[in-house]
Amino acid sequence: MDMTTSAVWFAIAHVFMFALIFKVARGGITAHPPPRSRPPPPPVVTGTCIVGLLRTLVTKGFREMIQDQYTKLGSVFTISVFGLKTTFLIGPEVSAHFYQGLESDISHGKILEFTVPMLGKEVGYGVDIATRTEQNRFYVDALKPAKLRCHVGSMLQEVEKYFVKWGHQGTADLKQELEQLLMLISARCLLGKEVREQMFDEVFSTFHELTDNSLRLISLLFPYAPLPTTQRRDKARARLSKMFTEVVRSRKSSNRFEEDVLQNLIDSKYKDGRPTTDAEVIGLIIAILFAGKHTSSTTSTWTGARLLNHPQHLESVIKEQQQIVRKYGDNIDYNTLLEMSILHCCIKEALQMHPPAPTFLRKVHTNFTVQTREGSEYEIPRGHTIASPLVISNNIPYIYKDPDVYDPERYGRGREEDKVGGKFCYTAFSGGRHACPGEAYAYMQVKVIWSHLIRNFELKLVSPFPETDWLKVAPEPKGKVMVSYERRPLPI
Ligand code: HEM
Ligand SMILES: *[C@@H]1O[C@H](CO)[C@@H](O)[C@H](O)[C@H]1NC(C)=O
């Protein structure tokens, strides 16, 4: 045994002895091992502080209110109003369990109950966890990259056809135009050509009637009360269901197969081999329409407003399009879309600054512990509602440099600020167990639209940069977003 080895052994023995002595000594002082101490609950805002809180809410809005508490109390705190306890978890360090926790420990609870009369009791929160998990797999399968390739051509056709009507030059409300265009794309790629060609107007006006009446405050609070709003909702649901049932039945009876998402849902099978029923297919397709419509149209509008407001980024996107056209000609397919990485970052940054779903909520069924970045531990008790407010967590300065500045390059090579902060610091599409299955599809739509616009028009934002309308259930650009356009071929 040489000197070094013996020195190591001596050190190990020494540490071991010390540990033993220490343990015995402690044992001597406390006859029984102390009960394992539980971390304290998070700091609570109650009583008189609530008055101040409400004042901030009314005068400055939700975001400022939460930001104030975050600055004062740190990344974990509880707001208690009328015995209702909501604990805010801000930042990736304290968010892992929120996104990844088992459905039995943490779930949407009754928060999404209002979706049952809207989507039907055959899907989502109308069925048990196991069935819901399988149905979620149907979404993931129907929207996976291998399936998406075939939609590029149809999306392009819709986009080209739509902008023909713009003519040579003019002004338009971008928000309204893109909303309309995205409905046409959804009709074609999600619902299929029967709806797109024969019943577009009827389907989308009924769908609007359904969602509008489902999202009224009164329907959210009392989804089953016999009120005019809930009755209008139920009538619209029945009408929509009838139209979609005809489409599904006619495809089945004539043995016709299409490439759209509806077809994928018709062909989906549960683990035990059972195929989806007509009612399930209809619930699933309404849910997809609902999940993708407003999110995609606000994202396309914000992306445009941001680009037109930041000439240097617009210039980078134009250069990228020129390079791609030089390489592939006018042709756009799935792979060309994947090469539009600058445009991708511009969409990603627009989403980061204007997340269509700005706060996620869950219900806690089993106590859990979080540790903050500073090392404090807190136990969040069962019964609490927990909230992950993106409007705050997207703006954490130790993760995102100058978060208020529109800076798509933060996601580029060398910086990748969304990755260095850890797994749950970019959550516009949520993450973990409930991550949006439509993410790739959403990017595809927005890229098809914006690459077309940039290749064919010179655009200018002629109204002021839009504010956010927080009064909508899902926030959107306030008022009209007016652009002037002039058709010109992209100089190559
Ligand atoms: C920019 C556009 C989009 C954004 C920002 C977005 C965001 C999200 C988020 C945050 C969730 C999870 C909500 C939660 O955890 O409570 C979600 C769920 C979902 N999204 Fe998206 N989404 C977008 C577009 C789409 C599109 C285009 C589709 C379909 C074509 C889609 C389909 C879905 C579905 C089916 C769910 C529910 C998944 C489940 O039940 O767990 N989304 N989306
Ligand atoms: C959960 O937390 C609550 C409140 O702190 C506590 O009363 C309860 O005993 C805890 N439950 C478990 C199983 O630890």
UniProtKB/TrEMBL annotation:
Q: Which residues form the signal peptide?
A: 1-27
GO cellular component annotations, sorted alphabetically? membrane
Name the EC number(s): 1.14.14.154
Q: Which prosthetic group or cofactor does it need? A: heme
Q: Which domain of life is it from?
A: Eukaryota
Keyword terms of this UniProt record: Heme, Iron, Lipid biosynthesis, Lipid metabolism, Membrane, Metal-binding, Methyltransferase, Monooxygenase, Oxidoreductase, Signal, Steroid biosynthesis, Steroid metabolism, Sterol biosynthesis, Sterol metabolism, Transferase
Which EC class heads this enzyme's classification?
Answer: oxidoreductase
Pfam families of this UniProt entry?
A: p450
A single GO molecular-function term is: sterol 14-demethylase activity
Indicate the principal place this protein occupies in or around the cell: membrane
Q: What subcellular locations does the record give? A: Membrane
Pathway involvement?
Answer: Steroid biosynthesis; zymosterol biosynthesis; zymosterol from lanosterol: step 1/6
Q: Which reaction is the catalytic activity of this chain?
A: a 14alpha-methyl steroid + 3 reduced [NADPH--hemoprotein reductase] + 3 O2 = a Delta(14) steroid + formate + 3 oxidized [NADPH--hemoprotein reductase] + 4 H2O + 4 H(+)
GO BP term, pick one: sterol biosynthetic process
State the annotated membrane topology for this chain. Single-pass membrane protein
Q: Which InterPro entries match?
A: CYP450_sterol_14alpha_dmase, Cyt_P450, Cyt_P450_CS, Cyt_P450_E_grp-IV, Cyt_P450_sf
Q: Which positions bind heme?
A: C436
Check the record and name the PANTHER family matching this protein: 24-HYDROXYCHOLESTEROL 7-ALPHA-HYDROXYLASE, CYTOCHROME P450 FAMILY 7
Q: What does this protein do?
A: Catalyzes the 14-alpha demethylation of obtusifoliol to 4 alpha-methyl-5 alpha-ergosta-8,14,24(28)-trien-3 beta-ol.
UniProt family annotation? Belongs to the cytochrome P450 family.
Name listed for the protein in its UniProt record: Obtusifoliol 14-alpha demethylase
